[in-house]
């Protein structure tokens, strides 16, 4: 009897299944506490300009240092926060933290454009745009901000978002379409969206090693991005070979473990000081096989 019960409960609360480990009920309360007690931390992952080898930008990626559960990945708690309507608090906290950090960095002459990930529920709300405007005016000249919205999010309610996106652009905020290739973009809307950047999803980038189709798909995405006048970024670059192929195909920026993992702000500063970060193997491209 007990064995059976154990087995049943272990199905319900299998600790190896992360969504179960984070029992939804406690998580909501914990999330509130995470915000008020400063348990969230922003890590930064640099993006490298393929032609210059310089780091001009980084992506802010939030982490949750839970007092008893340890580090919790955003891939886990962001979708949960989104589902339960609690994303806004996190977005606003990350945004403020990033702007505060940029003001600090400016004092030591570090000027990086930082991308902050936002949800549809944020961008479709005019009050969120008001909030961004207010925070930007506080940060002043240090502010150098880009917002990343997933393709699925942008295409979910394109008409509703158009006005807010245009307002953000007028505030000097750059806009990026994240995880491109995983949603259902309408090219008509894509051309209409006031965005600056397109980020090719890592699924396509990572499989460039194994399938020719992926190489062709990535090449097409880069072309589409350029036709629309967008900067194209590849995320999930883990090998020199893929970096080289992307360079040959004219991709503008690369981001991935090959270059650096997301880092705490102090670690990022040390890493920047080590530069340059262009792999020595990346000599002028002479390959015709891509
Ligand atoms: P994303 O915005 O597409 O971010 C890229 C994810 O890929 C990050 O995972 C990053 O650490 C990871 N990554 C980058 N390069 C490589 C690589 O070469 N190899 C591999 N295997 N992974 C790589 P992370 O930090 O766990 O974030 C996961 C997702 O959580 C993000 O995907 C984003 O959608 C969401 N997220 C993270 N921080 C925030 C935030 O502050 N707000 C919102 N709304 N979402 C966030
Ligand atoms: Mg992103
Ligand atoms: Mg992405
Ligand atoms: Mg992603």
From TrEMBL:
<protein>
    <submittedName>
        <fullName>EAL domain-containing protein</fullName>
    </submittedName>
</protein>
<feature type="domain" description="EAL">
    <location>
        <begin position="24"/>
        <end position="276"/>
    </location>
</feature>
């Amino acid at each position: 009897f007990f064995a059976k019960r154990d087995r049943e409960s272990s199905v319900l609360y299998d600790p190896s299944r992360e969504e179960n480990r984070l029992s939804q009920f406690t998580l909501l309360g914990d999330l509130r506490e995470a915000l008020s007690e400063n348990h969230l931390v922003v890590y930064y992952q640099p993006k490298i300009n393929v032609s210059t080898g310089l780091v001009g930008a980084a992506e802010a990626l939030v982490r949750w240092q839970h007092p008893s559960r340890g580090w919790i990945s955003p891939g886990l708690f962001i979708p949960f926060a989104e589902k339960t309507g609690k994303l806004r608090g996190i977005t606003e906290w990350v945004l403020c933290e990033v702007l505060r950090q940029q003001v600090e960095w400016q004092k030591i002459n570090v000027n990086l454009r930082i991308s902050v990930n936002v949800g549809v529920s944020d961008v479709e709300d005019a009050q969120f745009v008001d909030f961004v405007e207010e925070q930007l005016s506080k940060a002043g000249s240090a502010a150098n901000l880009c917002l990343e919205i997933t393709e699925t999010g942008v295409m979910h309610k394109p008409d509703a978002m158009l006005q807010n996106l245009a307002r953000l652009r007028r505030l000097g905020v750059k806009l990026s379409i994240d995880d491109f290739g995983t949603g259902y973009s309408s090219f008509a809307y894509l051309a209409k969206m006031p965005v600056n950047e397109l980020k090719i999803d890592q699924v396509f980038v990572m499989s460039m090693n194994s399938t020719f189709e992926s190489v062709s798909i990535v090449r097409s995405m880069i072309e589409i991005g350029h036709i629309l006048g967008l900067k194209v970024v590849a995320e999930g670059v883990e090998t020199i070979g893929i970096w080289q192929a992307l360079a040959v195909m004219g991709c503008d920026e690369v981001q991935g473990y090959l270059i650096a993992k997301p880092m705490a702000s102090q670690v990022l500063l040390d890493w920047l000081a080590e530069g340059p970060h262009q792999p020595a193997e990346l000599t002028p491209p002479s390959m015709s096989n891509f």
